[in-house]
Design brief:
Blueprint lengths: L18 H21 L3 E2 L1 H4 L1 E7 L6 H9 L6 E6 L1 E9 L5 H19 L4 E7 L1 H29 L2 H25 L2 E2 L1 H31 L5 H33 L5 H20 L1 H7 L28
Parallel strand pairs: 1-6
Antiparallel strand pairs: 2-4, 2-5, 3-4
Helix pairs in contact: 1-6, 5-6, 5-7, 6-7, 6-9, 6-10, 7-8, 7-9, 8-9, 8-10, 9-10
């Protein structure tokens, strides 16, 4: 019985033919994402801005306008009210009142009472975060992402060469910025779950990049006379089956979780799913072309006293056929 192969062994795709167009698209996406975050901002959750979040789950599509009017009549200050994951659940975010825990509990009780009078049976979940804690969480979350990216770049640098480290760092920066742009565009809540998702995306993208870089390094030693563009095409095609199988498996699982999973992890699931798509793309069209743009060739890492190498295989200068 023959094994099913998604990618044939003789796959021969000229990936690098589109490297300049892909580079331009990536640059535009990064610039657009940066502009979105700078102008539109992120819909920061209570984790980062402090205050309290009340999630009200109704047994019908949530009457958001009526709830907004009823809470406004309580004169508790500005309240941000929006759907949370599905049409039956509302997120009610409010600034932390003066007076500490007792005052916060009183506010929550008034909101619960008001909504239950009109919509009996409504279920509630409450999160409270002080301003000091939210600042610490925001700082720690940003620091965790930054240190993870820097640590990964240093690891790649020592394991391979500095060009590979720069390529990995650029790839991870590309992925993180575009994911944040996605959250700015959609205004999905950006909370600690999303920070965890970004760290997961960084790990996935790195894993994919290391597999490709390792194959490139092997082929640089093996095919000394092959031009770098052709060598990159060979390496990408040789690792394509692993890339496709891994990515599709993750995407299918995440898609099911996005559709059928609980609302509380909707943002985390959406972030990882979108990040997996971007990470797969960047492993091919950011990390690999960076080696071309950094002038890596088959002689870049040869010892100075090494003689001319012989190649088992020779490819055309530009293109892979």
């Amino acid at each position: 019985m023959r094994l099913l192969k998604l990618i044939p062994d003789d796959t021969n795709i000229d990936w690098m033919r589109w490297r300049n167009l892909a580079g331009l698209i990536s640059l535009l996406l990064v610039l657009a994402s940066t502009a979105l975050v700078a102008t539109r901002g992120l819909n920061l959750g209570v984790d980062f801005v402090g205050g309290q979040q009340i999630r009200a789950s109704f047994d019908r599509p949530a009457p958001i306008e009526d709830v907004r009017a009823r809470i406004a009549a309580l004169n508790l200050g500005d309240a941000s009210i929006s759907e949370f994951g599905n049409p039956n659940t509302l997120s009610i975010r409010m600034a932390a009142p003066e007076g500490g825990a007792d005052a916060a509990s009183l506010v929550v009780n008034r909101v619960r009472t008001t909504i239950n009078q009109a919509y009996p049976g409504t279920e509630f979940a409450v999160d409270n975060v002080t301003g000091k804690v939210s600042q610490e969480l925001a700082w720690d979350g940003g620091l965790a992402i930054l240190l993870a990216i820097l640590g990964i770049a240093i690891y790649i640098w020592f394991r391979f060469e500095w060009q590979f480290g720069v390529g990995a760092l650029t790839t991870l920066f590309h992925d993180v910025v575009i994911v944040m742009g996605f959250f700015s565009l959609t205004q999905l809540e950006f909370n600690l779950n999303v920070v965890a998702a970004i760290l997961t995306i960084v790990g996935y993208s790195l894993n994919d990049t290391v597999v490709i870089y390792d194959r490139i390094r092997e082929n640089l030693r093996k095919f000394r006379k092959m031009e770098i563009v052709s060598l990159l095409n060979v390496s990408l095609n040789e690792t394509l089956s692993r890339t496709i199988v891994t990515s599709l498996s993750i995407m299918l699982a995440l898609l099911m979780l996005l559709i059928f999973g609980p609302p509380v992890i909707f943002g985390l699931t959406a972030a990882i799913l979108f990040g997996t798509v971007i990470g797969t793309y960047s492993s091919i069209y950011v990390s690999a072309p960076m080696l071309v743009w950094l002038k890596v060739d088959s002689n870049s890492f040869l010892p100075k006293n090494a003689g001319p190498g012989s190649a088992e295989r020779v490819a055309p200068k530009e293109g892979y056929s």
